[in-house]
Structures are given as structure tokens and as C-alpha cells.
Amino acid sequence: MSAPGGLPPGYPVPAWARVKDPMPTLPVEYQQLVRGGRYAWWRPLLTLLLCVAFDLVVQVVAGFVVGAIAVLTGTDVSRVVQKLSDTSSMGPLTFSVVIIGLVGLIPSAMFASWIVNGVRPRYLASVAGGFRWRWLLRCLMVTVPVFVIYLVLQFVVDSSTSPRPAHWGILLIMVIIGIPFQSAGEEYAFRGLVLQNVGAWFKNPRIGLIVAIIPSMIFFALAHGSHDPWVFSDLAIFALSSCIAAWRTGGLEASIALHATNNVLLMIATLLFGGWNAAFVSSATVGSPIEPLSTLVVNGLCVALILWQAKRVRLQRLYHPRSLVAGQPVGGNAPRWQ
Predict the structure, then answer these.
(1) CB neighbours of 318 closer than 8 A, spacing ≥ 6?
(2) Phi/psi of residue 207, nearest 5 degrees
(3) Cα–Cα separations (whole angstroms), residue 150 to 57, 145, 265, 269
(4) Where are the transmembrane segments (predicted)?
């Protein structure tokens, strides 16, 4: 068998012919999955920038498509632009562009990591190398009841209602179909990509985790546009709970379940009972101390239940190199359930 590049066996392999495995050679936690054979300090930074560039392209394309549809249907383009820029009145047109831009974060994050780090996109989903659908459903079984009870209690405390928005039926369908993917897009970017790439800068996994959580919280909160301290705290607590869920379960399924449950149920409630436009955070949004406190309690309970379920099913939370899985026992954290 010849060496790489057609060289005879035993001949020294030149640097250009050496292809390093991008995956770690030892079991690692989720936040250090890209710290493999090809790791270099600049790769995580380039990955994050490339993801942003990719998603900007998605948003521009979505804008052009909406504009083209407007022209073909004889709609006033200036009116379309005005609607798209008015996030305080979230109609179907504005809502669709927002959803597309956030859903675009899924392929943007996947391909950015694959191109720069060489790690296959499926490892952005979980340490098991794929999206664990059964585990996602199990997470939803504990998050949905908690949020339903929370929303019912909110309605009992404040039973005031307001008229439904125009086109609420179309918006309801868009929420049910699109918001789970929108939530997944934010988790792939703000949790998956940030945790793995910032965490890779540090050899110590605990230091990497702590440092990576900070920008995940800050970027996620700032991306929503409000600088109100209570709104910022509310979003930061939400991001923190999602980070903990992703770290302790070795993947994004739990954080996606948490995010999607919150967004879908909240939006359905506001569509049916009022408060639709107030459900979206903008630069004008202000909050109160009760909001971060309730988020801490509800999300904390959900995360605790998710971790309890992960322990029950002995969920894989570490990446295990194939060589170890195939040739050696890997201990108590071996793959058990996916």
C-alpha cells in the first residue's frame, strides 16, 4: 500500500500530503467538538464571521424574492418596503421575512463550521453526530406542560383580552409551521456555533464553557434590539438556560425544545387572546423585574426536568472517537440512547 500522494511505503510523508482528522482524538464535551487535529486559533473567529455573512446573503435573497412577488402581483414596492421596515406591526409579510432570515441560520452555521473547521454539519446538532429526534420529542414532553401551566396562570392573573390581529389565521399557520425552525436557527447560531467555537479556544473544557456562555448570552440578548435592563436580563437568563441544556445533554435538541415551546405557545396565545405585536422584542420594548424572575423559574424547572430525563435514558453527552468506540471500552458515558 502506497503512502499519500503515490509515495512508496515507509517514505516520509510531506506536510502538504498530511490530512489531519478534524475531530478530537479523545472524548470531549459539546463545547470542544471543533478542537481537533485541524484546530487553529483563527478558525473559530472565521467560522463566526462566515456564518454572519452567509445569513446576510439569505436575508438579501429573501428580500429580493418578496420584492419580485410584489412586482409580479402589481403591489406597490414602496409599500412593501414600508411594511418590512415596520417591525412594530408584524403582519404576514414582515413575519415571513423575519422567519426566513432566522431559519437561514441553520445552514449558515452548519456550512460555516464545515468549511472552516472541517467538522461535518451533523456534529453541530449533537455529540452523537446527528439530530436525535426521539430525544427532542422526550424534551417536548416535559417542556410543553410546564409552559402551558405558566401561560394559564398568566391568564388567570391578567384575563384581559384584545382583538385578534388582521390575518390572524394565516399568522397562526405560520407560527405552527415556521417558528420551530426559527427557534432552531437561533439555537444553531447562538448556542451551537458560539459554544463550539468560543469553547474551542480553551484547552480546559470548564473554562471554555464559562467563557463561551458569556458571548452567547450577550449576543442573543443584543440581537433582539432592546436595551432595557429587565428585557436584557430576561433574554440573558433564557440564553443561559439553553446553554446549560446544550452542554449537559451534548446537543441542541433540548435547547431547541425549550426555545420552540416558549415561542410557539406564547405566539399562539397572543394571536388568540391579544398582545400579538407586544410579543416581539424591539428597541422600544421595556420590561419589569417579574419577567426575568418568571423566566428563571420556568426555564430552570424545564432544564431540571430535561436533565432528569437525560439521566434516566443515559443520554450520550460526550463525543467518542470511533477508534475508542470500536476498539476499547469508553466507560460510563458510552453511547446508550439517542
Answers:
(1) 27, 28, 29, 127, 250, 333
(2) -65, -45
(3) 38, 9, 10, 12
(4) 45-73, 93-115, 135-153, 165-185, 206-224, 230-248, 260-281, 293-310
**Domain assignment of residue 172, given as a range:** 32-333
**Is 220 within the bounds of a domain?**
yes
Which of 263, 90, 274, 284 has the alpha carbon at shortest distance from 181?
A: 263
End-to-end CA distance of the chain: 38
Dihedral over alpha carbons 152, 143, 299, 253 (to 10 degrees) = -150
Q: Note whether residue 54 is domain-resident.
A: yes
Q: What is the pLDDT of residue 327?
A: 47
On whether the CB atoms of residues 2 and 97 are closer than 8 A, the answer is no
Residue 13 included in any domain? no
Return d(Cα 286, Cα 204) in angstroms, integer: 38
For residue 26, being part of any structural domain is answered with no
Please name which of 23, 39, 48, 49 lies closest in space to residue 203, comparing C-alpha atoms: 39
Strand pairing partners for 3?
Answer: 7
- Lowest mean pLDDT: which of 68-77, 122-131, 200-209, 241-250? 68-77
Lowest-pLDDT range, 54-68, 145-159, 172-186, 324-338?
324-338
CA distance 207 to 35: 14
Mean pLDDT of the residues in the chain: 86
Distance (Å, whole) CA 110 – CA 106: 6
CA distance 185 to 194: 13
pTM over 0.85: yes
28 beta partners = 319
**Structural domains of the chain, count:** 1
Cell of residue 90, nine digits: 408584524
41-53 pLDDT, tens per residue? 999 999 999 999 9
Q: Give residue-wise pLDDT tens across range 174-227.
A: 999 999 999 999 999 999 999 999 999 999 999 999 999 999 999 999 998 888
**Residue 324 C-alpha from the chain's centroid:** 29
In the predicted structure, residue 334 carries a pLDDT above the cut 50: no
